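Entry 14. Ran structure prediction on the chain below.
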Amino acid sequence: MTVDRRIRVGIDVGGTFTDAVAVDATTLALVGQVKVPTSHHHADGVAHGIVQALEELLVKAGRTAGDVTFLAHGTTQATNALLEGDVARVGLLGIGSGAGAVFTRRLASFGKLELAPGKRLPLSYAHIADPFDEAAVRAAVERVRGAGAEVLVATEPFGVDRPEGEQAVLETARSAGLPVAAAHEITSLYGLHKRTRTAVVNAAILPRMLATADLVDASITKAGVTAPLMVMRCDGGVMSLDEMRRRPLLTILSGPAAGVAGALMQERISEGVFLETGGTSTDISVVRRGKVAVRHATILGKTSYLNALDVRTVGVGGGSMVRLAGGRVTGVGPRSAHIAGLPYACFAAPDELRDARLATVRPMDGDPDDHVVLDAAGGRFALTLTCAANALGRVPDGDFARSGQESARAALAPLATALGTDVAGAARAVLDAGTKQVEAVVDAMIRDYRLDRDTAVLVGGGGGAASVTPHLAAHTGLEGRIARHSEVISPIGVALALVREQVERIIPGATQEQILAVRAEAEQAVVAQGAAADGVEVEVTVDPQTSTVRAVATGATELRTQDRAHRADDTERLRSAAGSLKARESMVRVLAGTDAYTVYGTEVRRRFRGRRRPVRVVDADGVVRLGVPDAQVATTTVGAAGEALAALVRDATAYGDGGVRAPAVRLLVGARIADLSGVLEPDALLALARSELRSRGADEPVVAVVESRS
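Output, structure tokens:
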């Protein structure tokens, strides 16, 4: 029997270390992990560390370069370049005549954008009245080039609808031998100022990112890897190297996105909050109905058209120091033991903590002098959130942050005396103070995204996960767990991430044909980047208020045939559904099913609120993949789906002062959950349903979960 040795490799380039993991391409099990210093100061930059990590990983996993079927890396390079002001000078070519010239000339003010203290965005502006006047364009290019421009951007009012002018400028400008871009290529949304600012920031990091991409690509090829190199995006997916060369801005803020991608793919969250806790801070993000939550990112203090993970950061991590005043714990963090240059007390040997005395210090000049330390036989130690979690037994065996129980309790004993309580009480006081700030953000995100608290789970990742997530779950009553291999959840996310593309168009009164065209464009984009066509999923949203049609396509670079060792039986799936529904198993029944999913439901009657029929869709592993508070479930076939769906949609469509609102429809077909809930117009919804089913066999079963909108 031939052993399948194929692996997927994910590499996460951090500020201090570069982490790499190898994941079995069939079972998705972790088969190797390594950590090497990030090579900022090497002649090849971070590319050297990436290749070094890959070489060490292959040795540790017992694999060869030929076994690599997927290779992707995430990098903080774009983020760091902006934070440090290490960017290229941009030559902005504004196009316009008459009134249009007034608006484009104002874009020269982008040169005032502050990147870092004392550093502004380097920009040179030149105006072009007629984009088809080649001599005038060449003269403008020479002006900005003479001022030191290393990359060019062309922009024109209404360039989204009439891109010919920007394209003509680019054709002429290419002869200068510099990287060039048009604003309409970076985003197709309206708004000259915001669209151009997004394009300019993208251009500013382009030369540096191109150099790194070329080095990494050449090095990986030299190492014998034939799989195409992918790069982590800021919205939780990956893109091809060619796409990164065109839009490097998509890699900014991709660090947190890698972690939530790992939680989404490895932990299979369908609804919940992911908390990635390091030594100093916790990044909090949301998974809603099986998808990461994204929004337009703020860059350099201004909103952009960059779709990035909605991540909110709290200054509380595993190394956050305890603060004490007036005989009580007043807070935890944001200063950490790492910044203070002190070891964690819980990792000291018991003898080192002998004769420990409690003291308070200023970790850095200007800090309040209320940060708790222990002066003991072995020196000075910081009292941290991790110490409290270990003292209370919140850190599981084998966890990255696990310490000896004796040391942890000895570390908390002096604090307990100061608080007039026992060790457990002192530990709870510390954890309560530390998770209070995190809880406020988690509650806000649950409200903002209208998560169902009955199905939402808290999943912790990062080396400090055990210091926050278990206590927060216990305090809030939400289900909580620490992700497997939490300390390398980010590179796992890179290794498991799907190819992703988002296409947005502003189309007033969009027709069915226009909506389907946007969908097709997104689908074709991920296929062009290497996704297997048969496995691409596309979610379409039509916002009638802004006339925005948005299609998000995702797909794997190969069709995954996961041979998981465990498949949940009927009893396990029922237990999972009942637990999520908060109902007795005897009150839960099977409503429908496919080979991949089972649909469970119950009935809830409440005074003054009438009857509700909550539904849960559970996969073969016993994971709740979809929860709907009130829905109708119907089973049909692909061949009969057209007529059946038309009747379901007609009966569940709402009519009112706000207009026509089709129901939220999800279709279970094969191994997919096709989410059509983003479309409010009935005919467009049915057209999308036909598009989802067009390649399926007529006899294949389809389950429709239909949720009426109030």
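The mean pLDDT is 88. Will compare against last week's run tomorrow.
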